[in-house]
Amino acid sequence: MPKQIDHEKRRKQIAEATWRVILERGMEGASARNIAKEAGLSLGALRHYFSTQDELLVFAMKLVQEKVRARINNIAIKDLPPKETVLHILLEIVPTNEETIREMEVWFAFTVYAKHKKDMFDANHDGIYSGMQNLIAYLDECSLLKQNADKDIEAERLYALIDGLALHAMLDPVRVNKDRIKRAIMQHVESICTEKIRETEERNP
Amino acid sequence: MPKQIDHEKRRKQIAEATWRVILERGMEGASARNIAKEAGLSLGALRHYFSTQDELLVFAMKLVQEKVRARINNIAIKDLPPKETVLHILLEIVPTNEETIREMEVWFAFTVYAKHKKDMFDANHDGIYSGMQNLIAYLDECSLLKQNADKDIEAERLYALIDGLALHAMLDPVRVNKDRIKRAIMQHVESICTEKIRETEERNP
After folding, report:
1. A26, A203, B187, B190 - which has most CB atoms within 10 Å?
2. In B, which residues are within 8 Å of A154 by CB distance?
3. Residue B58 falls inside a structural domain
4. A90 pLDDT more than 50
5. Is the model's pLDDT at A70 over the cut of 60?
6. Mean of the pLDDT values across residues B152-173?
7. In this structure, are A160 and A94 located in the same domain?
8. CA A177 from chain center: how many Å?
9. Does residue B191 lie within any of the structural domains?
10. For residue B113, which residues of chain A lie inside 8 Å, CB to CB?
11. How far is A47 from chain B (nearest CA, A)?
12. What is the pLDDT of residue B18?
């Protein structure tokens, strides 16, 4: 294997070891020593791949973002009807299975941690808010959004709903399960979209 | 001052010192040593008031809950029109000033921390979800809720909106300011309530 690729692969393995340590011990347990042990490396070898603790943490978090982005791109290229596309993307952002709930848990732990580390990593701007603005604009372009809607506030409301559901899925996965998340998101999207004249269409085909 | 009251007052002072330490250093900095120093006590004196670190943390968090509950009770006794009462209570839960944003920050840090401490403190059930169920039921009793609403999902959706806004107010207080939170909440409450004009039209077509 070329050396460059091997280096990047090893960095990803260390990032995944970091996630496991954070999940088990919280950010307060995510020391270089614990991460090296989990990755099966010496402390010196770890330093070869990441010269500082913060560099490692930022890399591990960017990898979570990339995974979410890849899942969203997979939906976008599916060419579903507009409202279906929006629903599927929203359902991809809110964690609904064990793997994505764990990702979210790592993400929240890191976000709270990063509050105390100025200039470390801008967890506020994780791209989800601008994503919500794009979805609202997309619904509007497709003439699906209610005509009197305040698009600015609708994006804020959708963003709050999505992150609130994500938070609750993490804290209380038994109640806030996949089915319940789906119903809440569908109910929300329906409420901001124009009411279909489906009944009329069905009566007068 | 009677000894019992003095004891309780001192415990509250220690809890407030704990909040300050968490805000400045995060949960990973909330050691007994740091908290004792912030409270101006010896480690031995601190142990007199709280025998374990977890006992102190749980007490400090319950005090945050009590402060929120007291603010909500103050609104409930004001005897405003139903929809106004609901709006005011929701605006009281989402932090909109420096003091309440700091409370929320401590609360989130603690919630993430408590995920790794089984049976420590049930941060999932902080009373906000059942509060949302009550508000939806109250709007329904006052015939303000849309008649075809799924009350169960509406409570979940309102809960997600409120906690999502709270999270964003903490992470990005410049964008998610008081005015913006108010507009999002008002827009949401209006969207789940009956439209008065339409009601009249339906009655007198």
Report:
1. A26
2. 187
3. no
4. yes
5. yes
6. 94
7. yes
8. 16
9. yes
10. 26, 28
11. 22
12. 94
